[in-house]
Write a structure and sequence with these properties.
Rossmann fold; globular; five-stranded parallel sheet; binds magnesium ion; Helicase, Ruva Protein, domain 3; about 15% strand; binds adenosine-5'-triphosphate; alpha/beta
Length: about 425
């Protein structure tokens, strides 16, 4: 039987040309001209292959892509556009598009892409399902995330030092990896260093290396991260935690791009790009004289601020489906989330951000008895789950805490508090009831 293809294209001339051409090749094409029709069809029918224009109407081919993947994760989606930019290419690949065609393209190119998509599905379906999705996949198309993708696509190919700021679990490391992946350095190493967890005394030798005998225990030469990552990217995580002496060392390095291993008389040139991240407010550390301003300038040639999840709630449903799909695969489950379940997840404040959502979905995937996650299941899981990030507090406590603080700040004004918390007023009332406030 021939494969059913959904074609989404608002330009009737292009639509007819492509549909006719594919039908002549023996494919079975269903063509629609709006995203609304496309989403409706997708909802009713999991297509194996979707071809969509990107700029269609008030929604885009990226929405079509998301829905197609949600409905059928192994669906191959080919996106095309005449107004392609690096951003759209990245958004497309990041969200799992199979191919991306910049118009004008030859119809042969499209047919070839369609054939490849179909072959990859029939030949490698099993592999594709058992294979872990690469950790570098970034989900989310909120305005804030799109801004981040744009910046990433602009700065990735340059050697600019980047400082990524954001609360814990917002995806800073993932973004750093993306910057590396979309740079010329991608074939070279990406080396993360958690500056917060390495004792200050060891940080220097860890990064710059040390020669034999430089200090007690240094019984051989030790290559530092900057040298090991030569031509690649070094990701300095928790940069706000480094002490004054090391701040100075790092500043020198960023100026000279030279390393001198501990105990060595000689400097060596290395070629690495530095991406740093912090969940602390470095500007404030600078103001308090706890972080060198000159280093801060050097690090933040480009600054990226990742907003907390509660400030981009539209990312919660796609992230939920993404993680659900991942853990259903991993734990061999077939758990679904109901609309009320998605709403409950959307309404939570997520102090631990995406990581917390990920853990919660993982837990729910394993524990949900009826293969259905509804609002009640979500709320139970939230109350039951200990926040590993929140210093032993439960998520419910952390959230309750946040609600109390906002209510105090608004003088008890619940509408205002709901607005600040980014939830509906009736959701706040429900939460207050649960908190017995
Ligand atoms: N947009 C996203 N799409 C998919 N997964 C995400 C996204 N953002 C974060 N994650 C996942 O959430 C988890 C936490 O992300 P990451 O480690 O990048 O956060 P972080 O900001 O570095 O946190 P921390 O400050 O605690 O180190 C990871 O498993 C990551 O893969
Ligand atoms: Mg991190």
């Amino acid at each position: 039987m021939s494969e059913q293809i959904l074609l989404v294209e608002d330009d009737s001339g292009v639509r007819t040309t492509i549909a006719t051409c594919l039908e002549l090749e023996g494919f079975n094409v269903e063509a629609v001209s709006s995203t609304r029709d496309a989403l409706e069809r997708l909802n009713a029918n999991g297509y194996p292959l979707v071809i969509s224009d990107i700029y269609i109407d008030d929604r885009t081919g990226l929405d079509v892509l998301a829905e197609a993947k949600r409905r059928n994760p192994s669906c191959a989606v080919i996106l095309m556009t005449a107004r392609g930019t690096m951003e759209t290419v990245m958004a497309a690949t990041r969200n799992g598009a199979f191919d991306y065609l910049a118009e004008p393209f030859e119809l042969d190119t499209l047919i070839e892409s369609v054939r490849r998509a179909i072959n990859s599905r029939s030949g490698e379906d099993e592999d594709a399902e058992s294979e872990e999705l690469p950790e570098s996949e970034m989900i989310g198309s909120s305005a804030a995330m799109v801004d981040i993708y744009k910046t990433v696509s602009r700065v990735a190919p340059t050697d600019a030092t980047v400082l990524i700021e954001g609360e814990t679990g917002t995806g800073k490391e993932l973004i750093a990896r993306m910057i590396h992946r979309f740079s010329m350095r991608s074939v070279h190493p990406f080396v993360p260093v958690d500056c917060g967890s390495i004792p200050p005394a060891l940080l220097e030798s860890e990064l710059f290396g040390a020669v034999r005998g430089a200090f007690t225990g240094a019984d051989r030469d030790r290559i530092g991260v900057f040298e090991a990552a030569n031509r690649g990217t070094v990701f300095l995580d928790e940069i706000g935690d480094i002490d004054g002496a090391f701040q100075l060392r790092l500043l020198r390095f960023l100026q000279e791009r030279e390393i001198r291993p501990v105990g060595s008389p000689r400097e060596k040139k290395v070629d690495v790009r530095v991406v740093a991240a912090t969940n602390r407010d470095v500007r404030k550390l600078v103001d308090d004289n706890r972080f060198r301003e000159d280093l801060w300038f050097r690090l933040s040639v480009v600054r990226l601020t990742v907003p907390p999840l509660r400030e981009r709630r539209s990312d919660i449903p796609p992230l939920t489906h993404f993680f659900l799909n991942k853990y259903n695969g991993r734990y061999n489950r077939n758990v679904k989330v109901t609309e009320s379940g998605v709403r409950a997840l959307r309404d939570f404040t997520w102090p631990g951000n995406v990581r917390q959502l990920q853990h919660l979905v993982e837990r729910l995937t394993i524990l949900t008895p009826q293969d259905r996650i509804d609002a009640e299941a979500v709320e139970d899981a939230i109350s039951a789950m200990d926040s590993h990030e929140g210093g032993g507090e439960t998520l419910a406590e952390t959230e309750a805490d946040q609600i109390r603080r906002v209510l105090a700040a608004t003088g008890g004004n619940k509408s205002r508090a709901a607005q600040i918390l980014g939830i509906e007023r009736k959701t706040l009332y429900r939460k207050l009831e649960r908190m017995k406030l």
